[in-house]
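Long-time lurker. I teach an intro course on protein structure, and each term I like to show students one example going from raw sequence to a predicted 3D structure in token notation. This year I'd like something fresh instead of my usual example. Would anyone be willing to generate the tokens for the chain below so I can use it in lecture? Attribution to the forum is fine with me.
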Amino acid sequence: MARIDLNGEWRLMSAKGMKGHPAMVPGDNYSALIDAGEIPDAYFRENEKDVQWVSHGNWIYKRDFTVDDALLASRHVFLNLDSVDTVATIKINNREIGRTDNQFPSGNVKILGMFGNYFRMPKDFENTLYLSQVQQALAIKTGVEFWHSLRPRNMGTIFWQLNDNWPVASWSSLEYSGRWKVLHYMARRFYSPVQTVMYRTSKSSPLELYFISDVPSPVSARVVVTLRRLADGSPIKKWQFSPKASDASSIKLDIPDLYSDEKERCCIPLNECFLTIVTTAKGESTTYSHEETFFLNVWKHCNLPDVNLSVVDIKKAAGGDFDITIESNAPAFFVWLAVAEDPAGRFTDNAFTILPGQKKLRYRPGEEMTASKLHNLLSINDLRSSYL
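-- Reply from a regular --
Happy to contribute to a lecture. Here you go:
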């Protein structure tokens, strides 16, 4: 990846026309003006009073740099401005390319750098937001499921944080408006009273599979792990288990190590397959179900098929709810439905996996809604559609 270092000497000038002076970046206005002899040392005695005018005006940092044809031809070019603080307008060749208006200038860079380890670069800002929410949910999910499997050594988890009081980028699972983020929908699944989780603790560790019950009474379950092709979701191989828990417990199930044993995964490359884990269980008076998807490779390395997701039907249901039917031509992951103008609305499921075919779910609006209005407001996204 090509990189141009823009640190070093820039030119600092007042927007009112003061002549330019050399200014080091990273740096600040005061240090540059002190070095240029334009103001006294602002940190000496009471000089601070005499230089207040510096903060009352607008200042321009400017420098020339050249880029080669390869960089200009790149699909994505990111400008990292760690030292830009609070309020600024950013221009290249006199064309505005961005603005900052907060004191966390490197936030987007850190977020992009983190999910760049797992996902391909998003195609636009909306998908950057989508992937950042998926990444947050997966981070919490990974920790919760691991600690959950260690019962009775670990008997519970609480994640930070639930909600916000104002619009802000944070770890909350609920927006300030009350809208459920990806994390909140995933939390409903990874805190399911009965579930089966899969993980490995390091790149060299074997695959581990645990059936977990939080039910304080006997539960009989059936767990089906299916190895599937990414191209079309077709099954390649299955493993079935019948765990029984006398009370709340974690039971380790014997699953082959699909990383090291190519024959067990039928010699399918790791980036061309995935696993679905379906758990059904019966307690003394209640039945339970849980579905999980597991990738054997990092998502960005997987050959995800092109996806065509569509809403094929919306019908009014009892109590003002709506039954929604969506359809996909290929396996789609982290499928996300949203109604931007209805933050109080809730889906019965979201951020889910769908195999080729149809899936039905229900939507409970938070405001007056008609089927046609819901159809116009409803948006749908998935992992493959987040990048070009």
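Some talking points for your students: The chain has three domains: 8-105, 132-301, 309-386. The chain has a mean pLDDT of 90.
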